[in-house]
Every structure is written in structure tokens, then in C-alpha cells.
Write a structure and sequence with these properties.
The chain is α+β, with helices and mostly antiparallel strands. The protein contains twelve helices and 31 strands. The strands form eight sheets. Strands 11-10-16-7-8-15-12-13 form an eight-stranded antiparallel beta sheet, with no helix packed on it. Helix 4 crosses helix 5.
Length: 517
């Protein structure tokens, strides 16, 4: 379902997506559903940086299918999404995927997942949230190989394929996840959870209907963020079939549909009955932890590419458009009229935004990432991250030293006996800025690292960010091969020979902490 260029290149989900499966198999017939049942599926990002997408996705569903790799087990992203699901009191089905991997360890992964469920349940109960512990102990487990289209309710054994088709998975979903609950006497209530655009229909609002019926051509009320109710017209109503959207005349409770004809609709708003408006609560997301300054290109080479977008108005309009569909971002003014402070959940979310703007033809200056600090009980506090690292045994010393220099505190260390070690650290978010490049270098590209938010803690002190210096051009002109050959012993270059440079441009990195011109 990942359709974006960046999603396919990086192998991650950035935007939540939905589809609908019309199931008419034996499990539906056994429940007396002769016409089958429509199962709405929403694919949410796992990464904590895209928490806004996760919050919106969970507001549309009645249950969660937790996919866990039979070798890797639960990762920090698993913890992040699962915590949000338990907080919303959603039933959980565990699917252990890729059981046919040669290095699979099915029993251990199921045990780790159960421990994670109970640990999260305990955390939430300590926060005063009522959790049904018995249901966590009785979570069903499905063993699957999605690539082969096989699954079973019995453990097939490490590295073995299940013998049945996907029927046990559908049966578990129908038996464990309830259908939509609604009150027939209630007026229309539909929550806007995402926005899209069509070249023919304009802005589309993706929403789930909680009560009432929505019809094409009807006039309904739009409950705005400020509490006002505005009359709007539904010019088109689109249902999802597979990965396509098709026109439909009406939608009932539980349906996830897209509506057109409302130009200024925003995420979190509700469609309600004009005669009896009852708005739904707004969607809340985690506070931003990382910020960076984004402004126009101020270098002497600005605007040399034909069609480049270089003006402050164009950059600001693009950032404002991003805010419409990305509720986890904040854009704040700075002292300069041509630069803005952009705050997000993490470094990855901001990097994705900058890369998307670059591909759209924007020329930008991007500042160094900074953490968003808070004062808690009069104490300056900074965001912390819980990082899980999987590395081969031989790199244990190098990675431990790397994390210690960034104020990381080791919490657990586990050796699975397969030559790999799993480490868990609590580290300041600013210690992870620029961490991944050094980490991949130290582990020769074999290490796997991922993290989730761990709340705020008192300021941890200074962290040394760079051990290298910079090579800076002392005049405008071309970077000649002759000059670069003579300077290459002092560092590595980030420009190609014969590239045009300007005075003051950083052209390379030195091996010592000083600047050369």
C-alpha cells in the first residue's frame, strides 16, 4: 500500500492509507453473513516520528492486528503503536509473520510480545487508565507467512511454512474484533481523519461515520475547530474498493469514505446533522520534540536552476499546505521574515519534509536540528528517547562507547545466542541528532537502531556533537582537480571536481576538529 516515492525508496510507511476487503469465505457464512462482510484495513506508520498518522488511524478502527517479525520480534515502533492501541481500549490480534525464515525464533518472539503487552498494560494502569489484564493474557496468536499466503493457529516450528491458507486469520478477525457500534436514534456523526486531493474533485476529506447516514448531494453541518457549525454540500461520496475509490450514493455507520465539495475542511473536524449537531472530540497528538529552521536559499547561486521555487512566499505557502495534512507539525515565525522554525516529532519526520520540498523544486536553507525544551516544576527539561539497538557481537564495545558519549544510559542487554546482541538505552533526543551515520559506520552498515519517546527529563549536560572540522572555499570559482588532489590528505570532499563554489561554502570535512580555508 506504500505508494509514495520516498516510501518505496526507504522501505517505510510515512502516510496512513486505507483499503477495504469484501470477505465472503467460510468464517462469514458460519456467522450467518451470507452476503459477506466488508473489512476496512488501515496501514499506519510504525515510526514514532509519524505519530500524527498513527493517532488518526487508530481513531478510525475497532481493533488492531499487530504484525511481528518471527526473527526480529517486537521493536520500539511496535511498542509505540501498541501503547496507543491499548490506550484506546482496542482488541489486539498478534500475527507472527515470516515464520519460514531460517533464523526465526517463534516461541521467544511470542513470549516477548506477551511481555510487552503486559508491560504496557501495567504502565497504563499506573497512569490511571483502566486496562483489562485478562484480555491481554488471552490475546490470540496467528502464525503466518504473508509472502506464501499461508497461516495457522498452531506453531508450525521454526523455519517451517504453515499448512493452511489465510482462512484462520479471517476467522480470528471476525470472532475477535467487534463490528462498528452505533445508535440508530443518533444523528449524523462523522470524523475527518485525513485529507487528500483529486485533480477532478479538488480537496477530499477521508472520514469514518460513527452514527447516522451520509448521502451524496446532501447538505450537512461542518463542526469547525472554533465551535461554529457551517452548512456544506456533499458533491461527491467515494467508497474504497481494493486500492480504488468508487462513487457511492450513501454510507452507513462504520464505513470509511471520502467526500468532496468542502474546500476548507480540516483534520479533526466533524460532519454533523444540521438540525441536531453533536460534534466529536478533536484528535490530539504528541508534542514536537525536534525543531529546525527552514528558509529561502540565500547563497550566491540561488535561482540558477530553471523553474526553481526560491521566494519566501512560495516556501511559506508550501509549509502552510503541509500543516493542513500533517497535524503533528508546527510552523513558528522567527526574527527573519524569510525563515521559519518547523517543529516535529523527530529528525526523520523533518528530513522527509525537506526531501519532499527539494524534489518539488524548492531551494532551501536548513538549520541545525535542535531539541524543544520545557520547564517542568521550574527545572529545564529535554525530551528523552528509548533506543533499541541490534548489532553483531563484535561491535558491542564500539556502540557502547558511542552511546556513552551521547549521554546514553544502558537499561538492558540480551544475547539471543545467534551472534547478535540487543541493547536498550535511554538517551537525550539531541544525542541522536547525527547518530545514525556514525552508528552505521561503526557497525559496517549491519546495525539496526530505532527509538520511541520516553518523555522529558532534566537537562543532561553538554554533548560533544562533532569530532571533525570543515573545509571552506576561500573564494568564488571552480573546484579544480589540481587543488582537490593537494588537499585530499586533509579531509574528504562533498563537491565534485569542476563544481562551481562560492566564498564561504563548506566543500568538505576534515579529520581533526578545526576549519581549513
Amino acid at each position: 500500500m506504500d505508494s509514495g516515492d520516498l516510501e518505496r525508496e526507504k522501505g517505510i510507511t510515512i502516510l496512513a492509507k486505507n483499503t477495504a476487503v469484501h470477505y465472503t469465505g467460510p468464517a462469514a457464512q458460519a456467522l450467518g453473513l451470507e452476503d459477506g462482510v466488508i473489512i476496512n484495513v488501515i496501514d499506519t506508520p510504525g515510526h514514532a516520528d509519524f505519530g500524527g498518522e498513527v493517532e488518526r488511524g487508530l481513531s478510525m478502527v475497532d481493533g488492531v492486528v499487530l504484525m511481528v517479525d518471527a526473527s526480529e520480534g517486537p521493536l520500539p515502533q511496535t511498542r509505540f503503536v501498541l501503547r496507543k492501541a491499548l490506550q484506546a481500549h482496542l482488541p489486539v490480534i498478534v500475527v507472527v509473520n515470516k515464520v519460514d525464515r531460517p533464523d526465526s525464533r517463534i516461541e521467544e518472539v511470542v513470549s516477548e510480545t506477551t511481555d510487552l503487552l503486559l508491560s504496557l498494560g501495567e504502565d497504563l494502569m499506573n497512569e490511571g487508565i483502566d486496562i483489562d489484564v485478562d484480555s491481554l493474557m488471552d490475546v490470540p496468536v496467528v502464525y503466518a507467512s504473508a509472502k506464501a499466503g499461508k497461516c495457522s493457529l498452531e506453531n508450525p516450528g521454526d523455519g517451517q511454512l504453515p499448512t493452511e491458507n489465510l482462512e484462520p486469520l479471517f476467522e480470528t478477525i471476525l470472532n475477535r474484533i467487534p463490528g462498528p457500534t452505533y445508535d440508530e436514534d443518533m444523528p449524523l456523526q462523522a470524523h475527518v481523519t485525513n485529507l487528500d486531493a483529486s485533480p477532478f474533485l479538488g480537496r477530499l476529506a477521508l472520514l469514518r461515520i460513527h452514527n447516522g447516514t451520509l448521502k451524496k448531494g446532501a447538505d450537512v453541518g461542518l463542526a469547525r475547530h472554533d465551535g461554529t457549525i457551517q452548512r456544506v454540500h456533499i458533491s461527491e461520496l467515494l467508497a474504497t474498493e481494493g486500492l480504488e475509490r468508487v462513487s457511492t450514493e450513501s454510507a452507513a455507520p462504520g464505513d470509511i469514505v471520502a467526500v468532496a465539495g468542502i474546500e476548507d475542511i480540516m483534520i479533526g473536524e466533524s460532519l454533523v446533522d444540521l438540525e441536531d449537531p453533536r460534534p466529536l472530540p478533536l484528535i490530539t497528538v504528541d508534542d514536537p520534540a525536534i525543531s529546525m529552521t527552514i528558509g529561502i536559499n540565500t547563497s550566491p547561486m540561488a535561482g540558477r536552476v530553471k523553474g526553481a521555487k526560491v521566494t519566501a512566499r512560495q516556501v511559506k505557502d508550501r509549509l502552510d499546505r503541509e500543516l493542513i495534512g500533517n497535524v503533528s507539525l508546527k510552523v513558528l515565525p522567527t526574527e527573519r521574515p524569510d525563515a521559519w522554525e518547523v517543529q516535529g516529532r523527530g529528525e526523520l519526520a523533518l528530513a522527509i519534509l525537506v526531501e519532499q520540498m527539494r524534489r518539488e523544486g524548492f531551494e532551501l536553507t536548513v538549520g541545525k536540528p535542535q531539541v524543544v525544551t520545557k520547564e517542568i516544576d521550574g527545572v529545564l527539561s529535554e525530551p528523552m528517547e528509548r533506543m533499541t539497538i541490534d548489532i553483531p557481537e563484535e561491535y558491542l564495545g564500539a556502540v557502547t562507547q558511542l552511546m556513552a558519549a551521547r549521554k546514553g544510559r544502558m537499561e538492558t542487554m540480551a544475547n539471543h545466542g545467534s551472534g547478535w546482541i540487543r541493547l536498550e538505552f535511554v538517551v537525550p533526543a539531541r544525542g541522536l541528532i547525527g547518530f545514525r551515520t556514525r552508528f552505521l559506520t561503526e557497525t559496517r552498515g549491519t546495525g539496526i537502531a530505532s527509538s520511541i519517546s520516553e518523555g522529558y527529563a532534566p537537562w543532561q549536560g553538554s554533548i560533544e556533537q562533532r569530532l571533525t572540522g570543515s573545509l571552506v572555499a576561500d573564494r568564488a570559482g571552480q573546484a579544480t582537480p589540481y587543488a582537490m588532489t593537494n588537499l585530499q590528505e586533509r579531509g574528504s570532499f562533498i563537491v565534485e571536481p569542476s563544481s562551481e563554489v562560492y566564498e564561504g561554502q563548506v566543500v568538505g570535512e576534515t579529520r581533526v576538529a578545526r576549519t581549513w580555508t
